[in-house]
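Batch 3, record 17
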Amino acid sequence: MEEMHRTFAALSDPTRCAILEMLADGEKTVMDIAVPFAMSQPAISRHLKVLEDAALITRRIDGAKRPCALSPAGLEQLEQWATKLRKSMARNYDRLDAVLAAMPPVEKDTP
Amino acid sequence: MEEMHRTFAALSDPTRCAILEMLADGEKTVMDIAVPFAMSQPAISRHLKVLEDAALITRRIDGAKRPCALSPAGLEQLEQWATKLRKSMARNYDRLDAVLAAMPPVEKDTP
DNA sequence: TTGTTATATAACATTAATGTTAAGTAAATC
DNA sequence: GATTTACTTAACATTAATGTTATATAACAA
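Prediction for the assembled complex:
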């Protein structure tokens, strides 16, 4: 979990987040992806490269086309990282509850 | 899920990721956090502000100290976003499987 | 009250990210 | 085989992020 920030960096751009959400519908070519954005196609190509490097999408070759699809790798890593931290947090609350429960009733009950 | 990239931007820096992982152990003051990093205290203060704005940490006031702790809000949002995409992806595979299963056996079985 | 500790804010330099256009390659179509 | 389509790569300008030091504020300790 030491390189997590690379994955997050890939997701830190609104265009790239939107691309991933488009791909939730299934595979799309570079042009399919580019059209809805007010941005040149080379710009989209570079966003796709960033997403691919972060293992968030995969690209296959189909003639002159390069269809893109979501990749499980990056997404699972992301989910696990968030889950891990959220659970640590919960454990801390439990520990705090235990400490409070162990305190003398006077401290605990007086309003 | 339209502002997700703000959360990701907050996590796109290695120092900020490391800070969150430190906070998994529980609440820490600004100085507690700053010491292990080869970086000035003002730099850490600004990282903390970014994390707070993204609802990834909370800060309370304790005299001159400002203890920081993980906040569930951002982390849950993160987890849910990743889960949503991963599930869409799985649904797409299922749909593809259905299409393949509906194909004539000749296409499916011939090696 | 005076000094010290804990933190925030401001001003600034450096670096990296994002977009643009122009040019390059390789497959598809006429 | 010439043109068009699909995409990548390169060169460049602009903007934003990150760090630094200096300075401000507020609580604490002597």
